[in-house]
Amino acid sequence: MMLRYALKTVRARKAGFLGAFLALMCAAALITACGTLLETGLRGTVRTERYAAAPVVVSADQNVHQRTVKHKKGKTKVKHKAKPIAERAWLAASLGDTLAGTPGVARVIPELTFPATPLTGTGTGADGRAAYGHAWESAALTPYRLTSGTAPEAATDVVVDRYLAERARLAPGDRLTVQSTRAPRSYRVSGIAAPGPDVRHQTALFFSAAEARRLAAHPGQVTAFGVVPEAGTDPERLRHDLTEALRDTGNGTGGSKGASTGVRVTTGDARGPVEFLDAAAARTKLVSMGGAMGGTSLLVAVLVVVGTFALSVQQRHRELALLRAVAATTGQVRRLLGREALIVGAAAGIAGALLGLPLGGLLFDRFVALGAVPATLRHTTGFLPPLAAVAATLLGAWAAARIASRRVTRIRPAEALAEARTESPRTPWGRLLAGLVLLAGGVVLVVVLGMLRTEPASTPVTFLAVVVLSTAVALLGPLLVRAAALLLAGPLRLTGHGGRLATANLRAGAARAASVVTPLTLLVAMACTVLFVQPALGDAARAQAREGVRADWVVASRGPGVPAAAAHRLRSGEDVVTEVVRTTVRVGLDKYAAQGVTPAGLTRTWDPDVVAGSLDGLTERTVAVSELAADQLGLVPGDALKLTLGDGTPVEVTVAAVYARGLGFGDLTFAHGLVAAHVDNPLAATLLVGTDRARGDLAAALRDFPGLTVLTPAAADSLQAERQQANAEVNLLAMGLVLAFTAIAVVNTLAMSVSERVREFALLRLAGATRRQVLRMLRTEALSLLLLATTLGSAIALSVLTAFSVGMTGRAAPAVLPLVYLAVVAGAGCLTLVATALPGRVALRVRAVTVATARE
């Protein structure tokens, strides 16, 4: 029975429920889109390309593992955790004999993969595809077949794939310069090979076996083994047999609780992550990004939807009061509102989920275009994200209706009609107490944020603090609006009759005005936080880097990096050249940004602000650590540190120095030789040159190295700023949907707030007010609410950004860009005025007498 009444109510009040429907639909679309990213991170496939003809692939484990054993109440509990390493882990070439001796194996093909960028007259010639070098013997893994020319035999021969040959217009006999892990070298194109149809995301260059081993720079090691089974042998069965054979030799996979001893045997789609390490790492990033976006979206959606339903119920206060007056019980009214909310929530949830599926695809494609996610990872969409979005929408709608209806269902029938006439001037004690508790919780979060010193820990707390403080504003909104009306009463009187009416309306309709202030506050606070949190961190890092670089010149590369031969060419006399190569290492399971630098003459070009120890002791058996890393790990100079290098190699080094500028130079600094031997790309990211020579002399010395540029430290800093801005685009896109949803909520709430006041406008016109005067009153109210929301949102953002800056940089110096801030305020102002003026003009088109008569 109650469901039938709810359906009739929804049909009769379609316009009244439109605002709630739009808010819920946008929330469902947002949750679905974020859910597809999360699902892609958890279940997204990475299909193999180069290993298509090898049903079984043997590779090194790409994770660092940690086991903890706990004994409690006579029981032993073993926990196993694994985290991915940053570089490719390599295998001993001698394992090939073990694999070849396993029953069911027809052929074992060793694989070498290393960076190899073709340099043509128009650029790299790869047209955006990643380019890798291999030994010709591994061409059978795809397979690649020669379409012209011959296989590479001499050290100066290379076979290119058909994709590169067509774009660079190469033919057998042409010369091609390749920048690999060593100095660039000119090769003769001996042949052109065509791959299978599945190779779409990479360009392959094949060298002779000896040259490939030289360029791979890992003697006695291989990237992987492709295993071809004998005819009739099931790949899965062979995978099991190979696992057992490797375990017997102490190199196999397995072990209890999923622990690994260094080697993995994979088949099917599991081969893809072996081939594309960046895609495998991107899955972890998407899980983190999708979870953070989804969680923030859900919190924002709940806050916005509750406000929208509160306004919707407030607009129906008179109708609900009549129901109470004609003997409807509290439970009946509550069930009616709950079922109405479920009906609207179901319709909005389904529509939003359907809209969110293509939205998630567009978002994923944009991440690929920005380089945050590789194209080799396939976007995965299942039934769980839409289902979760619909469920969250239904639950949110029902909860919002229950919360919004508490007051009207608790008052006595005799009081209901009286309260329907005017808004109660008192704020319920429960609402006031909840607002104060959330305000205190937000303050605690801000204090905690000021103590967090790592970005992964700070980022979720940052946005959670914004949402919690905005929720406190929502609950304390009526009090804040009344206080603002009191403060603005004097200035508003100077604007004439419209200002006096606006002041009276703000005082009398504080709850209605508070429902408008909440999404506006959230929009300003969230937009400022999103736009300024990354610049705060990036600017501080660049400031430390500027202060720490003492070099006269910086050599940068437009390609994969600066080869060691270029550094050797520049070293002469008293000139100092510091090679900088970057990586990521793990101490236990914790990840730290690291770099390798040339120790000789280091203090001439680089000053990380050493606070303990000395850089003079930096060798391949020592390390310098930042103050943050030293505090986290409890290290002082002379202590031993066990860690795992980027390619999974465990080492133990001694702490030689502790430095202060870790934000600009990374947490760990090693000798260049140690890091370069354990990264995929050993080319230097930059060269720091201390010399009296002019730029022209350095450029002349580097003329044999294509793509290198000699820059001043200031120009190099500007280049870093451009890269920082490119990285910031990913974060802006990630939170852009949340901001867009909040902006829609602002427009939606304002339109609902104005449209319910048709009778009020009619009475004003009957009392002699003109349309222009009513619109001026609306604009004055809107600007007053905008001023209050901007003040509150700015205060929230400033407190959160200041705490973030203190925690991450040690200084209370948030990077607030004045022009960007003004753009945020101007954007909020435009939304406010447009969403007020348009519904106001529509409401004023109806004849005042007609409205007054109809509502009586």
Give the distance, in angstroms, between the N- and C-terminal Cα atoms.
29 Å
Structural class: alpha+beta
Characterize the main sheet.
10 strands, mixed
Give the assembly state of these chains. single chain
Shape: elongated
Task: Classify the helix fraction into a percent range.
Answer: 55-70%
- Strand coverage percent: 15-25%
Averaged pLDDT, please? 85
Total helical segments: 29
Q: Give the C-alpha Rg.
A: 33 Å
The tally of beta strands, per DSSP, is 26
Q: pLDDT under 50 segments (min length 5)?
A: 253-261
Write the layout of secondary structure elements.
Blueprint: H1 2-12, H2 14-43, E1 56-60, E2 63-72, E3 75-84, E4 91-92, H3 95-100, E5 105-111, E6 114-115, E7 117-119, E8 130-135, E9 145-149, E10 157-161, H4 162-168, E11 175-179, E12 185-194, E13 202-207, H5 209-216, E14 221-222, E15 224-229, H6 235-248, E16 263-267, H7 272-275, H8 277-315, H9 317-325, H10 330-370, H11 384-404, H12 406-410, H13 413-421, H14 429-449, H15 455-475, H16 477-493, H17 497-508, H18 510-548, E17 553-557, H19 564-570, E18 576-587, E19 590-597, H20 602-605, E20 610-613, E21 622-626, H21 627-633, E22 640-644, E23 650-659, H22 662-665, E24 668-671, H23 672-676, E25 686-690, H24 695-701, E26 708-711, H25 713-755, H26 758-766, H27 771-809, H28 818-844, H29 848-855
Parallel strand pairs: 8-13, 10-12, 19-24, 21-23
Antiparallel strand pairs: 1-15, 1-16, 2-3, 4-14, 5-15, 6-8, 7-11, 9-12, 10-13, 11-12, 17-25, 17-26, 18-19, 18-25, 20-23, 21-24, 22-23
